[in-house]
């Protein structure tokens, strides 16, 4: 319950100012020679302080595997891992202990639990995603080697990457600070983020994720459709507001004649408005989806708000915050997708006698 | 695994031309005086043949509860229910046994399972949703009586209901055949669907769902966020291509200053771009979301396609099919949402000592 | 939650005097040619009225599969099944509606749920096991063909079958009405049951179950040990009071030198006090376990008891009840074990890359 | 899947010579003022080196909670905890890397996973139970304060504590090194263990566990019976061979007239052969059960065995091992039972509207 994955599962713990984040991955198959560098590489992509347009906080985000791996190979038993918090100490949070920040989870946690860890957002902090990246980067190694999962920033505010993903070189995504593989668009996005940042404001955007070479057959008919599992994972990311795959919301404007993907004789399809999924199951074509992110709620400028007693107060974000989370969300989307796929990929092996 | 719900769960069975659909609801609390009419009412809203713009197939879709209810009250033990298939007999499906219809699940089922029940789509048939409506309509009775869940058709093709939901009388939704509560827009939608139908074509659209009076505190911090559970449920509906809540994809174009919902002193918010959810937990404001549906893949006109051996064939839908599923999807969205909410509502009762 | 099995799962519904029993089996692999006769055969072994020493109630206990099987083969989608209740009508239960029968679940259901279906025990009726036999008999067909699961009555009251199972011909179990494969012991058991029955009394006993040719590797290290999964299943059977495997409670009297099973060079072991399981995982030797059953609580003679208000009342079983459930419990134990094994067998296929 | 508990769940990780053991507890209610000393006290009861009759290994077994607790109170979010391994370094295990020790899990792990962590038994080490004690000791604090869970050693080899538990002062259990509350029996047990230990041999035994003041209503009708959940937990303990509750295997020798527990007018029962459970649900009387443990497989004397290639080898335990695990298993049984009860206790709160 409330794990990621159905058979291959991830349970996590950790809060912004606790001792550590961490998780347990169960049912990971034995015998995988773990590429630890690939795991740390993904964590490094997510960590703060990588470029001038993201937060300058410093955290090493080093994952230490505690179990389930012996002599470099997975043993088939639960894989525990820990990522220590390094900046969790001393700061004084008493000024926000009673204040509810607008569009944060302060109020809802108090309503739900009757109390909350107010230091840095506690459990509601997006730092939780560090667990998902670690687990996803490991799960990715279970998938066939040719499965490629490539996310990129497809819009920031009103600036869209208009080119279809087929016309982009997705291997170049990380070459721009904003992780948009189209250099001209990337430049505009970066300029926009810098402008917004100067104002102490923040901005939203979208991420496109493309999965190539996924075998046909992945996903389950009912209550386990591939798109539903992906949507569930993505909408657990902090700030995510929407998910669409294939033609998505545009497809809702179309007619069947326009939308149906006709087959070629090799069972590929001439178009791919389906987004590589039919009846909840992959068909061998590219799977692609888009996730919408709202602007970060923490502003580095004063906002009116209320405290626990309903008194009006002024809140103002301090220190180092992202003006736009999109660049750092790219590895989150990718590795979360990898975990979802690895889970369904393993399950699919049991679908035929 | 692959049930709907986490604590209150629904497992289902059934395929288009099997004997029956049905399901088992577990962990339903004891002592509820069941309103059977409300359950059947929701099933009747979903069933075919209700108006000139939906399929004219006749099915009574009568749910028969088999257990878990005694003297009109739930007993706290599993609730089994059955909805018999009435039209499942005799027709000859051999002509499509080997053909793969475009944008259907024929090919992916064969790839996954090595065989499939080709009669009427088998398990991939949208008739599965009859189970969800039955279970959801029952689960709805667990929620506080003032929780209102109202879905309506917000667009058909390019025709959008431009008014915000606050300006609509949602009690009038069922007064139009297309289930759009704005009469002028409804008229245009109906005209469009009739035109499309005449061509043997189909058309997509979107459904908006609004949940009023949901108490604060519903939804779980990680891997059980309210929006993620709703998205997962909605994207399991056949033909669903996207989900967004609150500001959704529009929110991704905004800045934090525009997007943050400032508090009133009674903890309501001045705006509600959050869609009633912060940190995955309801805040007491309206929860609202939108689901995109692609056009139905079955066209009543010939399409080129392939068979299992890769030979080109012509397929053509016969008989009675929906040109637009949106009107019938309205009760599906509502009752699916009801089940998700009832599950998280019960779980929330255990969140504090 | 509260299903049988972890990956291959069984959810069930039904109560003594409801319309039907039934269940849903999920994650059953596609492509199995179902042997329906084997399923019905196991149900027939469990059903009442088979011999003079069990209840003479008549129920046909015919299972009807509703879905998940097409053209005689499993499709990989959920398998729904129904077993109609035939004797559930009209009888007057008002005399026991308020009485609590000794050592029945009447009191505890009322305490838990605040109400109960008092007709024939409602959900607490052992008729629920009909579901388990149906599902188990199907699951058995997933196991390798040479896996043999043989249960028999190893004691009735003080009468024990003293021979070790290796000295018995387990194919002869069903030749005696009491299902003990040792004819001399069977005769004594039958005489004892007849005597007890004449008194309106009942008697307990034990069942031994032997699993031959189970491959090594079945069972999971932590919280999924083979013995734990078997124990859980067996202790869900009505009237079960204990479970032991291998040396069991006798092993607790021994020293390590006596108890350790030394290896042969082919990895078989010279003795098998381990009962074919080490560290929760099968080792290829026979798995065997014993289940203790208390005497049936329903006596065909008056007993003092209390009603809901604490008034003293006299209760007396009427009609047709088993004086000893052991013979009918043999197929329950076998098929329940089959389900547990099939679940762990499938899971084990995913344990190595 | 493969967690302890159904709603309140424990996932664990760790192996004998890994960096740490640890776990995640989910769905723990918010607002509990944690008594950390009670948790550490239970861990101290389990840890090695407490008396002359158990292993003299030194491990501090200090639990460090990583999350889910703030200002001494549970926050309702996942509770992560870590127990570092302190003795895991340096020793040379290459001599046993290829040997299969008799009645250990060496062979079965290799068969299942194709490899294993051979250092100190890896995942199959009983050190895993340190996680269960930590989690159980915390879960115990969720139960009503008057629920008492008291386990004690009821037999060692052939030496049985003949007195019924009602005649023992269970508060005195820890006063004897062997944790048997009957001083005369304890003395004999201790003498026996010392004798066995001198021989490099080991010995089995049984543990009785008594739960007082458990409210009526705990446990679920089907696939969640209280006895089944307890049995599953207990049979996951290393070396456990059997479980019985109430009359257990003795009850299988009795008649219904002898076995039925007649009611008093206050709904207590005159006898309690049921062991406080009817229909899988607690009835308010004492719940009691017994667990059988085989003798430890590691002998401090040479035994013949085989290696991975089937060659005969001699194995001999070295260092510090328990000659009898029973005393240290007492807190394991108690705290495991506490976790099972806390889970079902919380679930029971949702059973009525």
TrEMBL record, chains A, B, C, D:
It is an enzyme of class 4 (lyase). Its EC number is 4.2.3.5. Coiled coil: none annotated. FMN binds at residues 238-239, 279, 294-298, 320. Keywords: Amino-acid biosynthesis, Aromatic amino acid biosynthesis, FAD, Flavoprotein, FMN, Lyase, NADP. InterPro entries: Chorismate_synth, Chorismate_synth_AroC_sf, Chorismate_synthase_CS. It catalyses: 5-O-(1-carboxyvinyl)-3-phosphoshikimate = chorismate + phosphate. Reduced FMN (FMNH(2)). NADP(+) binds at residue 46. This is Chorismate synthase. The gene is aroC.
